[in-house]
Specification:
By secondary structure, this protein is mostly helical. The chain contains 20 helices and no strands. It starts with a helix and ends with a helix.
């Protein structure tokens, strides 16, 4: 059940999810972000507040007439920032020299843009204002990074580091106000966000210390939780009383921490059950039953205690169900892989078995209301990418393509996958990479060739009066196993063509062996198809089919 913890983000015991995280991480804005689209959007929002609708329409006409192009300005600023950042990284200039150069280049680019009509004069001021705020964020982030590094090297104690940080923070923010780079309102907003980040950092540090104490055996798990609750209350209440955060901020912190604590308890329960299954104390089915009971108990208790809302509980359940499906798919994949490695099935049989199992598990989860069709489409999308990667690796191992060719094809697959991200069709065709063994469409039985297997499927559908959804799944299984059958036959034919019509006994033996393998694979694949179909009818459908059978003379 390890995916449950990864999905929920609870792999670190006692680690609260906060709005802050590390100070430096929270505040750091790379110089290239100073001139990003975020700046454009913020400046646009500021302008919108100053213009009424008629004024805005007039401005748009002016922009059109002047040929304004703020995007081009942004790109030039971004390129300049990237060059300076690279120069600092390579030691060609100091950080202070880079900042001085940046200020000069920034002003030159903006001034030239105004003169060229790419920026309207009033907009240039808004541009500068937003850039000043990003620059302050960058300086705060750099200061936090330096102080944290000094504390890590032992040059400062934790308390000295915090004192140094508070002094640096105030100096930088006040300096920006005094230089008219930001307003007093901007400064207040900065302090507010930084205060929340600092609280998050203190909570995280407290959780880390308690976690270490539990791990070392200094305190029990129950004592650790009690100490955590006490530390959490003290830190959040203290921040409110000091005016560092508002009551609303405190409530938001508590809500996020409550969810993290529930995730932590769920993760711990999953680990205990997983360990019990691994040690043979319970079977896998018993483990799943125990997990479902523990999950329901913990989530219900959290709702009853007012720690999470019903909506948050529902969100937990949705994410956990997706994680559970991922776990089942992973386990199925491992079983099939092991069977193929042990020679219990051929590679083609293994791929067919995997696709059928994947479809059965994902469709079953949708039918049971455990995941949505959109979730199912996302699962298939990610799995298809992984399958394509496995096929590429296998092709390189067999010498069918070079490593460079495989990397190039992988880049194409990722590009195709990114382009398909907006596709909301849950029955989408997927990634057609030329190597994937996924079916490229889902037949409905109408255009399927009238072969022995198709006739069997039609008879099966009629016998059990399968629903439309069941029929789609039946034909999908048919296509999976039919494609595997046809690929095996094509592979044998390619081998025969390579061998030619030589009378060499060894060649004749290999030709005979290939034909026998095709027949053997065909038989085994058909049996697997029939086994998949047998899982589709409900008890009621089976009962009705038996009644109809008894009526026949």
């Amino acid at each position: 059940m390890q995916r449950i913890e990864r999905i929920l983000g609870t792999s670190a015991t006692m680690r609260p999810v906060t709005n802050g995280g590390r100070i430096a991480i929270f505040l750091t804005v790379a110089m290239t972000l100073v001139v990003s689209g975020v700046v454009h959007a913020a400046a646009s929002d500021a302008r919108a507040e100053r213009h009424s609708k008629p004024e805005a329409e007039t401005r748009q006409e002016a922009v059109k007439n002047q040929g304004a192009n703020p995007e081009a300005v942004g790109k030039r600023l971004e390129a300049a920032g990237a060059r300076l950042k690279s120069a600092v990284a390579q030691g060609e200039m100091t950080e202070e020299e880079a900042w001085a150069e940046w200020y000069a280049v920034k002003e030159k680019i903006i001034t030239e843009a105004v003169e060229a009509g790419e920026l309207i004069e009033g907009e240039a001021d808004a541009y500068r204002h937003e850039i000043h705020k990003a620059e302050l964020s960058d300086r705060l982030g750099a200061a936090g990074g330096r102080i944290r590094a000094a504390a890590a090297r032992g040059e400062l104690t934790e308390e000295e580091a915090w004192a140094e940080w508070h002094a640096a923070k105030e100096e930088l923010i006040s300096g920006a106000v005094n230089a008219s780079e930001i307003s007093e309102d901007d400064a207040a907003a900065f302090r507010h966000e930084v205060n929340k980040a600092e609280l998050g950092d203190r909570l995280e540090a407290a959780g880390g210390r308690i976690k270490a104490a539990v791990a070392s055996g200094e305190v029990t798990e129950d004592e650790g939780w009690a100490e955590w609750y006490s530390a959490k209350k003290e830190l959040i209440t203290g921040a409110v009383e000091a005016g560092e955060i508002s009551e609303d901020d405190a409530a938001a912190f508590r809500r996020e921490i409550n969810k993290a604590e529930l995730g932590d308890r769920l993760g711990a329960a999953g680990e205990r059950i997983k360990a019990a299954v691994a040690s043979g104390e319970m079977t896998e089915d018993e483990g799943w039953a125990e997990w479902h009971a523990a999950k329901e108990e913990l989530i219900t208790e959290a709702v009853d205690a007012g720690k999470i809302s019903d909506a948050e509980a529902a969100a937990f359940q949705r994410e956990i169900r997706k994680a559970e499906l991922g776990e089942r798919l992973g386990a199925a994949g491992e079983r099939i892989k092991t069977a193929a490695e042990n020679g219990e099935m051929t590679e083609e049989e293994a791929w067919a078995e995997w696709h059928a199992t994947k479809e059965e598990l994902i469709s079953g989860a949708v039918d049971a209301g455990e995941i949505s069709s959109a979730d199912a489409a996302a699962f298939r999308h990610e799995i298809e990418k992984a399958e394509a990667g496995e096929r590429l690796k296998a092709a390189v191992a067999r010498g069918e393509m070079t490593e460079e060719e495989a990397w190039a094809r992988w880049a194409e697959i990722n590009k195709e996958a990114d382009a398909a991200d907006g596709d909301e069709d849950p029955e989408g065709a997927g990634i057609e990479d030329g190597l994937s063994q996924n079916p490229t469409s889902i037949p409905d039985g109408k255009d399927v060739p009238d072969d022995e297997w198709a006739r069997y499927v039609r008879a099966f559908i009629a016998r059990y009066q399968l629903t439309e959804r069941q029929q789609r799944r039946a034909w999908r299984f048919y296509q999976i196993y039919r494609d595997a059958r046809d690929r095996a036959a094509s592979s044998a034919k390619r081998l025969e063509r390579r061998l030619g019509d030589k009378d060499d006994p060894q060649v004749q033996e290999r030709r005979k062996s290939a034909r026998e393998r095709v027949e053997r694979d065909r038989s085994r694949l058909f049996e697997r198809l029939k086994a998949r179909l047998e899982k589709l009818p409900t008890r009621a459908q089976r009962r009705d089919a038996e009644v109809e059978l008894d009526k026949k003379p």
